[in-house]
Amino acid sequence: MVSYEELEEKLKVDKRQLKQIIKELKKWSAPATILLSLYIPPGRPISDVMNLLRQEYSITDNIKLKRTREAVQRALAAAMERLSTLPKVPSNGLVLFCGEDVQTKDFICLMFSPPEPVPVFFYRTDKTFHTEFLEEMVSETNIVGL
Predict the structure, then answer these.
(1) How far apart are CA 93 and CA 44, in angstroms?
(2) Alpha-carbon torsion 59, 62, 64, 70, what sign?
(3) Among 20, 21, 18, 25, which Cα is nearest to 127's?
(4) d(Cα 92, Cα 119) in Å, to the nearest integer?
(5) Has this prediction a pTM greater than 0.70?
(6) Average pLDDT of 62-68?
(7) Average pLDDT for 37-46
(8) Around Cβ 112, how many Cβ atoms within 10 Å?
(9) Which of 23, 28, 34, 54 could potentially form a cystine with 71 if both were Cys, beta carbons 3.0 to 4.6 Å apart?
């Protein structure tokens, strides 16, 4: 059995890795709102997030287009599956991106803990992944001009 500390350590990414992840996520786009972005700040109970995702999954039956409905359901199911492996949110929070490229049928589902605390709770399915909160973490902050 893996301890929580070992699990949290496996989920951590540094700023260099985060830059690569952001670069990869920016390549993804979809013709419909099927790409899931989820930011969970430290201290937020996993059970609250799971309840939200279950509610979202239950209303996906209202999506008219079958391909869009199935893509959203797959992203939500993957996110719930990943979250169910964790007893609690890591100390810096958690970020999840899940979605499908409908042309190539490629699927991505990334779950990690960023190098700085997640500032907000944010959930959205959209045509692109929302990386703006991560971009703030990798931008240079101590810039001095002469």
Answers:
(1) 8
(2) positive
(3) 25
(4) 9
(5) yes
(6) 91
(7) 95
(8) 19
(9) 34
Is 50:80 a contact under the CB 8 Å cutoff?
Answer: yes
Nearest to 94 by CA among 57, 61, 53, 128: 53
pLDDT band at 50 (very low <50, low <70, confident <90, very high): very high
Query: Could you identify the residue written with the tokens 């700085």?
Result: 116
Question: Chain-wide mean pLDDT for the chain?
Answer: 90
Tokens at 61, concatenated: 């039956």
Using left for φ > 0, alpha for ψ between -120 and 50, and beta otherwise, residue 124 falls in: beta
What string of H, E and C letters represents the secondary structure of 30-96? CCCCCEEEEEECCCCCHHHHHHHHHHHHHHHHHCCCHHHHHHHHHHHHHHHHHHCCCCCCCCCCEEE
For 31, the token pair is 């013709």
Record the tokens describing residue 47, joined without a space.
């059970």
Residues, the chain = 146
- Asked if residue 32 lies in contact with residue 65, where contact means CB atoms within 8 angstroms, the answer is yes
Residue 38 CA neighbour count, 13 Å, CB half: 28
